[in-house]
Amino acid sequence: MKGAYFVSEEPRLAELVLAAMQVAGSQVASDGVAQLRDEQSRLFTVFAYPDQEASGDWRNSDITLAEDGLLPDLSALSACWIECRWEDLFAAQVSVLASGLAAQSWVLDGDGVLWPATRVDPAQVRL
Question: What's the predicted TM-score (pTM) here?
Answer without folding.
Answer: 0.92
